[in-house]
Each structure stands twice: as C-alpha cells, then as structure tokens.
Amino acid sequence: PAIAADEALQTPANPVLPTTELGRELPSQPVPRSCSDKTAAKQKAAAAAREALLPGPDKWGGHRLTRTGCHGHTRMFRYGTVNSNLSVNLLDANLGMIMRTMHGFDISVLSITETNAKPGAVLTDTKGIAERGIAGLKYMSLWAFMPKGRATGGGTSIVWDARIPHRHPYTNASGRLAAVTLCGPKQSHIRVISVYAPANPESEPDVVRQLYKDLLNQTSFARRNSVPVMVLGDFNDVPAGDAVFAKRDKVYPQKYSLLKYLSNKCLDTFRVAYPHHHGHSHWRKNEVPSRIDSIHCPSGWLSSLMSPEAEASVDYTCANFPSNHYPVLG
Q1: Is the pLDDT of residue 6 over 70?
Q2: Where are the alpha helices (DSSP H) in 196-292?
C-alpha cells in the first residue's frame, strides 16, 4: 500500500476512461440557483483566504533557478537539499532525475531527505557508500537507511560529484543523519551533514533526543579535525525570525532544536542572501506553510555568501526535482 501511494504521487491520474468503462449518459440535473451560487461563493472566499496567507512566487524565493545562472563565468561550489522518495520502486527513476538535474545545474553536493530507502535497496559498502551514475556521469552517495521495521517516514542520503574525494563517512542508527567530509584543493575540506528531523517529534522523543546528540557529536568531530561544517536538510522546524503564516500544530522541542543550536554556529544561507524575504519550502492543502528545509554554512563563508556571484534559491516550480517540497539551493 505504501508503494502504491508513492507511485500515485508520481503519476498523474488519467481523467479519460475507455469507452467500455463509461456509464450510461444521464441528463443534467437542475441545481437551484441560490444553492449553487452560495456554494461557489464560499469556495471562492475560502480559496482566497488560503492564498492570502502565502506570498506569491514572484515575491520571494531568491534568484530564479536557471542553467544560465548556474553555468556563468564562475565555477562555484554549489549545494542543495531536496525531499524525494527513493523507495525501491521509485529509486532508479527519481535518483536518475536528481543526478541529471545536478549535472544540468552544476550542483556539487545534494542532501536528499525522507528517502524511505530500506536496507538492501542500494548496494553499498560497509560504510554506506555507493557509486551511482548516468550516461557516463559518476556520482558518489552515502546512505542512511530507515531502521528495520519502519515502513515510511525516514532515511537520508548525500550525493556528490565523484571527482570530489571524501573521507570519514558516518550514518546514525535512526537513518536520520548522514555525514561525510568532502576534500577540496589546498586542504579546503568541508564536513557535510544531512539531517531529516522527525515530522511528529512528540511521538518520537527518543529519536529527537538522539538526533540532537548525533549532530553535536558530528560538529565536535569536525572541530577537532579543523574542518568547517555545512548542515542541510529537512528540519521540520522553522528558523527563528521567519514570518509565521499560521500556527503550527506540531512544535519541535526547543531543548533539542537543531536550528536553535545551528543559529549560533552557522549561517542560514538563504537568510544571508535575502534578509527580508519570507516564504515556505513546504505546503500541502490544509497544512501550515513553513520553511522547514534550509542550508546552514560555516560562518567563515559570510563574505562569499554576500558576494555578487553567490546565489540562493527556493525552486518553487518543482519542475527540476521529483519532490513534494521546494528544493533549496545555494
């Protein structure tokens, strides 16, 4: 049933039925004018009220995600985070699309959250590393699988350009954190940490507490090795200072808030580039819109993030990645 639901999300329903399956055509039934008018008016008013809560795509989202902008006169280290289903029946199609998009937009490393990937879905080595590729393009990946017994709502992965050497891969037991050090030229290394926080923290207090400890351990490990840290993913929490469009029913506990911890150590890349833009990276009908997906870079990158060549975007078109969230890139 979970796989069928996943496939339904990826494949739009066909509104045209074969002629043999059509029922007998019935004459149209008259509807009282007063009733139809009131219903339509109420629906229109409700839709307008929902839309009024959300900023239009033209009013926020950063720079437009275009191949021209990504392949300009500079060759910058580009990164991003996206929520995408990589369960067994969707793995090849969705991961293939992700890698093609990474190549097209010159993205060096990407965090993928809520993969729903189970142990054995991808052939990895003992440390969770797997080599993937399409049409001669080679990418490396690190997989934190969902724990055994969990059907959905877990898993995170990191995918990066195979030309970038790596060391010290790590995945935690809950499948919600993956970390790897990417090695750049002249010892310009970066510890990349992908996080997928629980969507309902009240129901998984032990997981919330352990994820917080794992993040602290990874940042401590990087500090001991004199390597800066980048943390990105789906935090299921809203950064302090962001506009609140509606009250959230599920509140992440402040004692174990990953964003609160990172706010004193890293830079929110989108907020640095656009200090006054507010919007969301996730919104479903009848749910609260919120910027739960974000990227946090080393504080030493401030001058680079504020330079004219730097870019930050929230891809509200959802046309480039197989995702039900807005991909966030920098």
Answers
A1: no
A2: 205-224, 258-263, 269-273
